[in-house]
Design brief:
The protein is mostly helical and 281 residues long. The chain has helices at residues 2-8, 17-27, 34-45, 50-71, 88-91, 94-114, 121-135, 140-149, 157-181, 187-214, 217-220, 226-229, 235-239, 241-259, 267-278, and strands spanning 81-82, 85-86. The chain has one domain: Farnesyl Diphosphate Synthase (Orthogonal Bundle), CATH 1.10.600.
Length: 281
């Protein structure tokens, strides 16, 4: 994935050099690559060619990277550390960080449009629409808006889930479905993957909240304890650490139940469910 992303990102010698340097800084050399991993694993279920999946996976990861750049800016979460190094607006400047996010988002859709990822144009157009909706006001951007509006306010579990289904879950779900749509799937299998993706998307956020509360900054690679310091509603603030961990395990179990009819083809997705819930960073 690192090599695919490096090939898609503009080279350092291409003007405007500073923007392209900042784009590469934001994307390369860090990150868990969970969204690409999910895309590859779902593509395996669908019998998709890796040459197709790698581009869909790169598009999803670029959307994720852009969201982190913007989320870290002073107008959002105002964070100085990401993936163990200074955030883009700290290393460069705020205007450059804003443009980096804009450019990474555009590049993601450039990739989806430029590469033959599906057997027909209509199917590929649906893939573009899927990522657009996952990134937009009905997905990640909408979830972030709810998050910002919820600071200092008590949310119940249903409201918290609604926020994170959009903020975190939408792009994780899109990553799974994009990988699968690079191949061929019967409707029942597609529905199973969709259910799995929704469960894993929420589980990822639950574990993120636990790690923010319990893991030191040096391990986490970003500023620990920031949610509590900013009085943000989280699964930990609502449920406590113990119950939040139990919820993550329940979501993993639901995800694996959804995969049960798929047999050995879905083993990589099961392993990724384990990673999402058991990770320490």
């Amino acid at each position: 994935m690192e090599s695919v992303l490096a090939e898609w990102l503009p080279a350092l010698q291409i003007a405007p050099q500073r923007l392209h340097e900042a784009m590469r800084y934001a994307v390369l050399g860090g990150g868990k690559r969970v969204r690409p991993l999910l895309a590859f694993a779902a593509g395996e279920v669908a019998g998709a060619a890796i040459e197709r999946v790698q581009h869909a996976a790169a598009a999803a990861e670029l959307i994720h990277a852009y969201s982190l750049v913007h989320d870290d800016m002073p107008a959002m979460d105002d964070d100085a550390l990401r993936r163990g190094k200074p955030t883009v607006h700290v290393e460069f400047d705020e205007a450059t960080a804003l443009l980096v996010g804009d450019a990474l988002q555009s590049l993601a859709f450039d990739i989806l449009a430029a590469q033959p990822l599906a057997d027909d144009a209509a199917a590929q157009l649906k893939m573009v629409q899927l990522l657009a909706q996952a990134a937009g006001s009905r997905g990640m951007a909408g979830g972030q808006a709810i998050d910002l509006a919820s600071v200092g306010k008590p949310l119940d579990l249903a409201e918290l889930e609604f926020m994170h289904i959009h903020k975190t879950g939408a792009l994780i779900r899109a990553s799974v479905l994009l990988g699968a749509q690079c191949g061929a799937l019967p409707d029942a299998t597609a529905a199973a993957l969709d259910r799995y993706a929704k469960c894993i998307g929420l589980a990822f956020q639950v574990v993120d909240d636990v790690l923010d509360a319990e893991t030191p900054t040096a391990t986490l690679g970003k500023t620990a304890g920031k949610d509590a310091a900013n009085n943000k509603p989280t699964y930990v603030s609502l449920l406590g650490v113990t119950r939040a961990r139990e919820l993550a395990l329940e979501l993993r179990a639901d995800a694996c139940t959804a995969l049960a009819p798929l047999g050995a083809r879905a083993e990589r997705l099961r392993q990724l469910a384990d990673f999402v819930v058991e990770r320490t960073f």
